[in-house]
From TrEMBL:
One of its GO terms (molecular function) is flavin adenine dinucleotide binding. Gene3D superfamilies: FAD/NAD(P)-binding domain (3.50.50.60). NCBIfam families: MSMEG_0569_nitr. This is MSMEG_0569 family flavin-dependent oxidoreductase. The keyword Lipoprotein does not apply. InterPro entries: Auxin_biosynth/cation_transpt (IPR050982), CHP04046_FMN-dependent (IPR024000), FAD/NAD-bd_sf (IPR036188). It holds the Pfam family Pyr_redox_3.
């Protein structure tokens, strides 16, 4: 990985301080450099560390490579409709890091950010204090892994890890593996274990799913043509509620395919409903399996139907479509599983993360810890967010849309700087 450019301020004050050195923070840095605005990126670990340290070995993108479009650094490989594997993603990001050459300090944790009476900000870090006219929070929204309290009552013999700590099937002890949750990580980790021949017990959640390919093309290609990825959050049918949605599960593995939990079940994976409790040495599950599978399939078919409508309206020549047909149906809702008899040796918790902005002393958060903002601009002067899911569009938290959001934030900062300069000039006159 290319070494970041160190900061060069002599007095610890910057016009802009960016918290977080992932693709979002680096994208903001790129546009600030283009605008000639001095700034500093403060990163708790190392730049883009999440992609290097919190992804399993077989991880790959679930969106096609052509959607990788960081600022002035689009995907340049020879497989735009493929899906980069972990090492290829890291290589792409290394190129972007060198391209931006951001002024950054790594291994530096931000402990507190607070606005002063004069409107500027103090930023306390593990490497001392800084001040800034503007603060851009680019640390993402996935901070604290969610693990239920029942985990505390599981026998010590059972290995427990969160999805970000999973690496490969061989790193787990012999025996069955319980995977809890079926968002993108849960579904793909269950597939990874299943393909390796491990016995998998899957607690199925409420995540939707979508097809990988439909009517001759990747579904992402169709949705791009339908301008779904350009839809701003305020025009989405759910409005800001879409930010709470779980991502659809699908995979780019082996060239891309659907993830069909019913097919896995027909091949020996054991499916249960939502994991609710542990009582009398038995895992207890809610009777939600059939409803969750049906709801996921309904979403799958609904997305395909929207593509059918688009094809019909525009008279596009495409292969015939169709409706997904179930390949397996649970005979009953199993609500209990004996922990000892099951042979479970490991549990992987794949039920998401909660945001943690406790270090940010600003009255902008709702009851769920999510900041109030309009396209990343908060009600507090000089405070911005970038890189959050559905900050503005579907791609806001992804390689495909973060550049647009970062550019918008920097333009807002430039406008604010012009206003301040005009006011200063007027006062001086």
């Amino acid at each position: 990985m290319s070494n970041p450019t160190p900061h060069a301020s002599t007095d610890g004050h910057y016009r802009v301080l960016i918290v977080g050195g992932g693709q979002a923070g680096l994208s903001v840095s790129y546009y600030l450099k283009q605008a000639g605005i001095d700034h500093l990126v403060v990163e708790k670990n190392t730049v883009t560390h999440t992609w290097r340290q919190q992804r399993w070995d077989a991880f790959c993108l679930v969106t096609p490579n052509w959607q990788c479009d960081l600022p002035d650094y689009p995907y340049r490989g020879d497989d735009p409709h493929g899906f980069m594997k972990k090492d290829e993603i890291v290589e792409y990001l290394d190129g972007f890091i060198a391209h931006v050459a951001a002024p950054v300090i790594e291994h530096t944790e931000v402990k507190r950010v607070k606005q002063r009476d004069d409107g500027t900000y103090t930023i306390a870090t593990t490497r001392g204090d800084f001040t800034a006219d503007h603060v851009v929070v680019a640390s993402g929204g996935y901070h604290t892994p969610i693990v239920p309290r029942l985990a505390e009552r599981l026998p010590a013999r059972i290995a427990q890890l969160q999805s970000s700590a999973y690496r490969n099937p061989d790193a787990l002890p012999d025996g069955a593996v319980l995977v809890v949750g079926t968002g993108q990580s849960g579904a793909q980790i269950a597939e990874d274990l299943h393909l390796a021949g491990r016995k998998v017990i899957l607690a199925v959640g409420e995540a939707p799913r979508c097809a990988r390919f439909y009517r001759g093309r990747d579904v992402v290609d169709w949705l791009a043509d339908m301008q779904y990825y350009d839809m701003p959050v305020e025009k989405h049918p759910l409005r800001e509620g879409v930010r709470d949605n779980t991502n659809h599960y699908v995979t780019g593995r082996d060239g891309g395919r659907d993830i069909d939990l019913r097919k896995f079940a027909s091949e020996g994976m054991e499916l249960y409903g939502r994991l609710d409790d542990l009582r009398d040495a038995q895992l207890r599950f809610a009777p939600t399996l059939a409803a969750s599978l049906d709801a996921a399939d309904d979403t799958y078919n609904r997305i395909n139907a929207s593509i059918d409508g688009f094809i019909d309206r525009h008279g596009i020549d495409a292969p015939a479509g169709g409706v997904y047909q179930r390949v397996w149906q649970p005979a009953e809702e199993r609500t209990a599983l004996d922990l000892d008899a099951s042979g479970i040796s490991a549990i992987i918790w794949c039920i998401g993360f909660t945001p943690d902005f406790s270090w940010l002393d600003a009255p902008v958060f709702n009851g769920r810890g999510y900041p109030a903002h309009t396209r990343g601009i908060t009600p507090i002067d000089g405070l911005y967010f970038v890189g959050l899911p559905w900050l503005h569009t579907w791609g806001s938290g992804r390689f495909s849309g973060v550049a647009r959001d970062a550019g918008f934030i920097v333009q807002a900062i430039r406008e604010k700087e012009r206003q301040r300069a005009s006011m200063s000039a007027a006062v001086a006159a």
